[in-house]
Write a structure and sequence with these properties.
InterPro entries: Cu-oxidase-like_N (IPR011707), Cu-oxidase_2nd (IPR001117), Cu-oxidase_C (IPR011706), Cu-oxidase_fam (IPR045087), Cupredoxin (IPR008972), CuRO_1_AAO-like (IPR034273), CuRO_2_AO-like (IPR034271). It is globular and about 135 Å long. The chain has helices at 4-16, 20-88, 238-246, 386-398, 456-461, 581-585, and strands at residues 92-104, 111-116, 125-128, 132-139, 147-150, 175-181, 187-193, 205-210, 224-233, 256-259, 274-276, 281-288, 295-299, 304-309, 312-313, 318-319, 321-324, 329-335, 342-349, 357-364, 425-436, 439-444, 447-448, 490-491, 495-499, 503-510, 516-520, 525-532, 550-551, 553-556, 560-567, 572-578, 589-595. By secondary structure, it is an alpha+beta fold.
């Protein structure tokens, strides 16, 4: 039909020519062509339909593919988040310690000491900022034991602080696993036992916290690091010293000074404590772990560059010698730039009527060796009289915060402007020495602390604090002078309420003739001022409100005052104590109760499952957990 006009023309042409056979043949041929065309048309239509079907299937598969891509993408995201969460869980370091008695002789006199894994000093914890530290402590002594981690802030976690006010002790023959994080901290710290007078018999060791790799330190990496533990020492063991204090007497003057549990005199052919290679620089992390005596340290022929103090990078001044008070730590860099031979490290007492000292040997590798140390040109000790106090005060004022260096976080230390924060509370604390019922006691504002049978933290957590202690028996000001010269002392648990996140000023005033040292758990503070005389509000104009070092301990010189500032942003119960352990044991300490109003896990962790219970809370039902 489509070709009918053409066929008609052809028909009339052929008819005119009278060739009918040819026309019929032609017509048959055209019919065949038309049939083939129709077949091809139908085939093309079927092909187009198949193509449309394939297109619909492709679209369907595309949608399914898109959905699969979404699912895969979501899976990848979930896996990535999971990986990030795994990565966010900071590394764990595990330790297992056996605390035992053992024979030691720091001053050459054999006596019973406290060892950790058979060592004095104990094992070093060498970690990095934000690491999780897990220490399983087996108490193999014959008396209860606690270890504290001096200077570690235990963010939200006073459960692990290791003081009698926060934890039940580890009983003989049992173990306890400490688990804490060195959150946002760097620096040189140490651990030691807080129970009884165990500190007098050892049990101390290093806790060094390094910066993360992504945060630069403000000095070149040293060739090596050494831990140096200094302190006074008594030849009587801790049990004999405790008996003296319990009987109302003082433990008296120490018998000597040790360096890493050893003591030597000039001329002794002793083994070297430390080794250095010529031309290299070394970091010495130095801590005073003694009982009551400030010390001075110097290294023969070598200057010391101060770089860190109790978790803060300092302005890098050079010193021939440094005063280090009880409980304090610092880091210095020493370059081996002298003739290769032996040199003396000299440690001497401060502010004692009769000085005591000890030496250790620093040996150059490939140097002259044994006997090459000379007593010539030893470090000149600072004076020990009133001039010595002024000398030490001036040295304290030379310690400055390095404002441009980063510590545990990337931002510079100086980005925290503590001097611009309004003070919300001032607490003035005066220490005193008294007799109560014929026995020696030490007090703060007339309150001599006494540990309770149940730790303060536990009775507060279980809601039964009123059965154990009263808050704020000590005022924010010392009692007014009375006819007995302000010597009336009350023996009781000393717990002060404090407001969470308040910025407080604490003034220590020392009216005695002996130097004091204080330590605050749970926080670092700015040591803004030390001066002779009595404190009054006018003294604030002399504060260092720009670059005071952020630290955890402060010394208070005789007849002088010291001022610190801190933000109470760490919920828990925290010990403010004399670091002179005789005074601490006889009451010169207190606890701050810093509760979060929200009682939230955001601010404080719950009681750990493995935390031992004792005293009145042992059989009580558990309180509702924080959420």
């Amino acid at each position: 039909r489509r070709n009918s006009p053409l066929l008609l023309c052809q028909f009339f042409y052929l008819k005119s020519q009278k060739n009918i056979k040819e026309f019929l043949f032609f017509l048959k041929k055209r019919r065949s062509e038309i049939r083939n065309c129709r077949i091809r048309d139908r085939e093309r239509e079927r092909e187009r339909e198949r193509e449309r079907k394939r297109e619909r299937e492709r679209e369907k598969r595309g949608m399914e593919g898109a959905n699969n891509v979404k699912i895969v993408a979501l899976l990848i995201i979930c896996l990535s988040v999971g990986a990030l969460l795994v990565k966010a869980e900071d590394p764990y370091l595990f330790f297992e310690w056996n605390v035992t008695y053992g024979t030691i002789a720091p001053l050459g006199v054999p006596q019973q000491g406290i060892l950790i894994n058979g060592q004095l000093p104990g094992p070093r914890i060498n970690c990095t900022s934000n690491n999780n530290i897990v220490v399983n402590v087996y108490n193999k002594l014959d008396e209860p034991l606690l270890l504290t981690w001096n200077g570690i802030q235990q963010r939200k976690n006073s459960w692990q602080d290791g003081t009698p006010g926060t934890m039940c002790p580890i009983m003989p023959g049992t173990n306890f696993t400490y688990h804490f994080q060195v959150k946002d901290q760097i620096g040189s710290f140490f651990y030691f036992p807080t129970t009884s007078l165990h500190r007098a018999s050892g049990g101390f060791g290093a806790l060094d916290v390094h910066s993360r790799n992504l945060i630069p330190i403000p000095f070149d990496k040293p060739a090596d690091e050494y831990n140096v533990f200094l302190g006074d020492w008594y030849n009587k063991g801790h049990k004999a010293l405790k008996k003296m204090l319990d009987g109302g007497r003082t433990i008296g003057r120490p018998d000597g000074i040790h360096i890493n549990g050893k003591s030597n005199k000039l001329g002794d052919k002793a083994e070297p404590l430390f080794s250095m290679e010529a031309g290299k620089t070394y970091r010495y992390r130095i801590c005073n772990v003694g009982m009551r005596t400030s010390v001075n340290i110097g290294i023969q022929g070598h200057a010391m560059k101060l770089v860190e103090m109790e978790g803060s990078h300092t302005v890098q001044n050079m010193y021939d010698s440094l005063d280090i008070h009880v409980g304090q730590c610092l880091s210095v860099l020493v370059t081996a730039d002298q003739e290769p031979k032996d040199y003396y490290m000299v440690v001497s007492s401060r502010f004692l009527k009769q000085a005591i000292s000890s030496v250790g040997i620093l040996r150059y590798a490939n140097g002259k060796g044994v006997g090459s140390a000379s007593s010539d040109h030893l470090p000149t000790p600072p004076p020990n009289n009133t001039q010595g106090i002024a000398w030490s005060m001036n040295q304290f004022r030379s310690f400055r915060w390095n404002l441009t260096a980063s510590a545990a976080r990337p931002n510079p230390q100086g980005s925290y402007h503590y001097g611009q924060i309004n003070i919300t509370r001032t607490i003035k604390i005066v220490n005193s020495r008294s007799q109560v019922n014929g026995k020696l006691r030490f007090a703060l504002n007339g309150i001599s602390h006494m540990d309770s049978d149940t730790p303060l933290k536990l009775v507060e957590y279980f809601g039964v604090a009123e059965k154990t202690f009263k808050y704020d028996v000590m005022g924010d000001e010392p009692p007014t002078p009375s006819s007995n010269n302000n010597k009336v002392v009350t023996i009781a648990p000393n717990v002060k309420n404090a407001t969470f996140r308040n910025f407080v000023e604490i003034i220590f005033e020392n009216e005695e003739k002996t130097i004091q040292t204080y330590h605050l758990d749970g926080y670092s503070f700015f040591a803004v001022g030390i001066e002779p005389g009595k404190w009054n509000p006018e003294k604030r104009k002399n504060y260092n409100l720009v670059d005071a070092v952020s630290r955890h301990s402060i010394q208070v010189y005789p007849n002088s005052w010291a001022a610190i500032m801190t933000t109470l942003d760490n919920a828990g119960i925290w010990n403010l104590r004399s670091d002179m352990w005789e005074r601490n044991y006889l009451g010169q300490q207190l606890y701050f109760s810093v509760l979060s109003p929200s009682r939230s896990l955001r601010d404080e962790y719950n009681l750990p499952d493995n935390h031992p219970l004792c005293g009145i809370v042992k059989s009580m039902p558990m309180p509702p957990p924080y959420k």
